Amino acid sequence: MGDESEWIRQAREGDRAAFGELVLAYQTPVYNLAYRILGNRAEAEDAAQEAFIRAYTHLRSYDPQRPFRTWLFSITSHYCIDRLRRQRVDWLPLEDETGTGDEGDEAGGYRAPTAADPHMVAVQREREALIARLLAALPPVDRAAITLCYWYDCSYEEIGEALGLTVSAVKSRLYRARRTLAALLSREQVSYVL
């Protein structure tokens, strides 16, 4: 955290190398958030790049009293939601997502099953495809809220900050999204039996 504060301070003073350190620290979580919202690798790469450009150009407006991660996730989420509103999204399976090594878990990235059992790999891919289908059925803001809550373990306050919502609106959206996902999952289970 000490390095991050120093990088932010230096970057606000115009040090591009310091901002580069922030990019290195957050590139995987920002990309993964964009991917979970947009569902397309190329679009997620573009969105992550745009989020960092916007963060750099608006760095002076960042309030150091607030978590940098939340501010950056807010920029990313808003950009992705706006992009979704302008186009129709075709989701890719989650196994196309990147994130390697230990940073995959911390950043919410995809991590392939370590078991060599082909059955376990197939079950994992089937689950990921199901999650992608279920998430695709949610409105963009609800999808972002679910992603921030369950993949990034953000508090209601952080989600509200990132998405420009009140805490009660976040709770309401998460509640509705969970109900929608449960209903969809129930239908999916029925279709597997048939």
In summary, what is this structure?
The chain is an all-alpha fold and 194 residues long. The chain has helices at residues 2-12, 16-38, 41-57, 68-86, 103-106, 118-136, 140-150, 156-163, 167-193.
Q: What features would you describe in this structure?
A:
There is one protein chain. With 194 residues, the chain is an all-alpha fold. Helices cover 72% and strands 0% of the residues. The longest helix is centred in the last third of the chain and has 27 residues, at 167-193. The protein is globular, with a radius of gyration of 18 Å. Residues 89-113 have low confidence and may be disordered.
Number of helices: 9
Residue runs with pLDDT of under 50 for 5 or more positions: 89-113
**Overall geometry:** globular
- The helix/strand order is HHHHHHHHH
Largest sheet: none
- Mean pLDDT figure: 81
Q: Quote the beta fraction.
A: under 5%
Radius of gyration, in angstroms, nearest whole number: 18 Å
Q: What fraction, in percent, of the residue positions are helical?
A: over 70%
Terminus-to-terminus distance: 52 Å
Tally of strands? 0
Q: Pairing-aware structural class of the strands and helices?
A: mainly alpha
How is the topology of this model organized?
Elements: H1 2-12, H2 16-38, H3 41-57, H4 68-86, H5 103-106, H6 118-136, H7 140-150, H8 156-163, H9 167-193
Helix pairs in contact: 1-2, 2-3, 2-4, 3-4, 4-7, 4-8, 7-8, 7-9, 8-9
Short descriptors:
single chain, mainly alpha, 72% helix
